[in-house]
Amino acid sequence: MPMMSAHRQLTFDEITVTDELPLHEATFVVVDLETTGGDRQNDAVTEIGAVKVRGGEVLGEFATLVNPERGIPPSVVSITGITEAMVHDAPRWDSVLPAFLEFCRGAVLVAHNAPFDIGFLRAGCERLDLTWPKPQVVDTVKLARRVLTRDETPNHKLGTLARVLGARTEPVHRALDDARATVDVLHVLLERLGPLGVRTLEDLLGHLPDVTPQQKRKRGLADSLPHSPGVYLFRGPKDEVLYIGTASDLRRRVKQYFTAGEKRSRVKEMVGISERVDHVECSHPLEAEVRELRLLSAHQPRYNRRSKFPQRAWWVVLTDEVFPRLSIVRAPRADALGPFGSRHAATAAVDALQSATTIRRCTDRLSPRKPGRPCALHELGRCGAPCAGLQSAEDYAPEVVTIRDVIRGRSGDLLDRLREELQRLSDGERYEDAADHRDRLASLVRSLDRGQRLSALASVPELVAARPDGRGGWHLSVIRHGRLASAGVARRGVPPMPVVDLLQASAETVLDGPGPLHGATADEARVIYRWLTTGGTRLVRTTDPWTEPANAAGSWRTWLEKATAGRTPYAAID
Fold first, then answer.
1. Of the four, 104, 204, 320, 474, which is 20 to 30 A from 135 by CA?
2. Which GO terms describe its cellular component (predicted)?
3. C-alpha distance from residue 352 to each of 279, 282, 417, 422, 424 (Å)
4. Domains and CATH numbers, the chain
5. 487: closest CA among 479, 474, 476?
6. pLDDT in tens, 492-514
């Protein structure tokens, strides 16, 4: 997969001693993607190629085919030459993208027609729940339009620029070759900018088009910010919070808002009316992420699109009736299924649970003594028997227990029923029905797995964890009932355990709250869970064992991977 040389890439902590980073010291990763089409939401990557360069020298390369987990249109095959047979055994995007993010960590991303490639990379991060690193981006199309005259090139296509500027590699719609050609184009364009006084990375980003006058005038807002991790808050003329974000380097990140690297029109508008930038320094990135979530909830800034209402998750519960039914609610009880980011996702889970049980679906309030007439859903065969008076409460109870057991991870019988139905549909050659059923089951397993993992974490009264900081020290966190209660660092050479003792003694008091997450928000619990289970994080202390139920949906993860891969469409997956 990635091919790298022995050269070590400088980190931003090493290269941002001053804001003016010379271009010959900047690390660029030039990337190119081949895809099944141009829709970043519905199409997929088939190949990625990238070249890491600094000071005109190639430091490493990253190249691999990618299994798109779907067909490749003949029109695309005719352009790229990449066939379905070539990508059948290739790694999937969920393993390639994390590796690429590590390869380009701390570098400036470069692409020819950058919105296309960067758009697919960002969309992949969203789908895989990965953190987009918010790198600086240089688009060689826009750079060429700024540097070259109409007399020098008839157009700004990569093939044309490679020929006009004498690139050593000919672009052929294959990712690595096109990335290599873009490297040569980039170097020639940078040479052309030298006589114009463009000698630093900030000069380059400011020289690109699309930098508004307001952005240029507001550059000084970042001057007082430190080179440390934390949260930044753009404030407007009435001191209102307009936008909130996080950064591993506050000054470097905020400066990006005043360059061509910022493409979002809404954010450009926000920058134009901002009067100052406040900040909250944090011990490490986890603390910054958590503080961002809490500040978003407190201020609800109009220019942030995500996580403004962290309490507004959806949950699926059994109603408190003699003959319970499944209901979608905002305020969960302890045995709720969720959290779901949308009502649509919660509805899909309800459909899956109902398809495997005789749980009733009508909303009529029923009495064991006066069941009344059958509802319309019963006449259509889509409602449980209680509304027709054909079941007693005692006969109905096992179905309720089955649902509660699968939500709590005490039994997998309901999931087994759904898998048997999937096999029956496949054996009957009802492949389209089988595919729909498979997708419903996969969605349910994913929801159960996520909910059970977060609930297990939130049930622990206190745990202390440490993560290597990459420099011989530790990032430390005290977590109570799924919430970050304290954060700190033990730098290289500092004994960590006294720091742990101090953090525990000064940590926020967190009381056990209601619901499956014990009072924590879904977003905060999810961020903490990801931090605990990645990056070499280690548990230091815990009041109670952090465990998941023996029959939790986690035992279905292998099946879920196969179902998600979709390599055998319209067939059962064993």
1. 474
2. excinuclease repair complex
3. 45, 43, 11, 12, 16
4. 2-207 (3.30.420.10), 213-299 (3.40.1440.10), 314-437 (no CATH), 460-543 (no CATH)
5. 476
6. 999 999 999 999 999 999 999 98
